[in-house]
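Input chain follows. Return structure tokens only.
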Amino acid sequence: MYQSPAHFIAICSDSIGETAEAVVQAALRQFELKGAEIKRYMNVREEDEIVQLMNEVSARNGVVAYTLVQPELREVIREEAVRLNVRAVDIMGPMVQAIADTFNDYPKRMPGLLHRLDEGYFRRVEAMEFAVQYDDGKDVGAILKADVILLGVSRISKTPLSMFLAHKGYKTVNYPVVPELSTPSQLKEVSPGKIFGLTMDARHLLKIRTERLKVMGLPNEVQYTALERIQEELQYAHNLFQQLNCPVIDVTDKAIEETAGLIIQSLSQEGSTPSI
């Protein structure tokens, strides 16, 4: 017989709830809770919707995280939280108020602004299509069209990093660095600050490659997973990065988001913005 999870967290949003859920997921990583359920209530615009969801949360002894821009709805959820003795956390309200108070401005109070179909949205879509089309060095001509060029040996997270940067609006191309392959001449024509070299601890990369071969059902007694070969590839890549005078990021213990943050920060310092 099915039993609902003991730990219930509701996301209440007047948009899609992505912001609140990201905060909740980050907080949950600090705990060892088993089987926590996160349920999104999206596009909440009416008071009776809030009353209904708060009753459910109360019945399940849960907690609510909410992002509501309308003061009336925030007040309703606060009142229901007191009435039902439910913990409700306002994810966005304090930040909005802090900005308003500090900069003497007034918020628009319009739901869904983060996800509206504006120029930025279409730029992100175009960047995603670009990253897919030119993934893994499919067309070296794309190097001169890109906002970001990622270089690195095999299995060093070039593709997922490209997709993440594309989601942020940066047209990203990644190119594999292999000693037996000649370096694209286009790299010498790229504006400074757009090329980034990725490196990793050799033994860590060995584990990743070995697991990859297992998933593919292939034997791991090949040159691809030989430590000496991996060290040779990494040294070759390092020499290339020196020739190009590009920043080098060690991704050994970094999440994709962290690496992308370093790249975006570097681009900002160079005054580079996503192309349209």
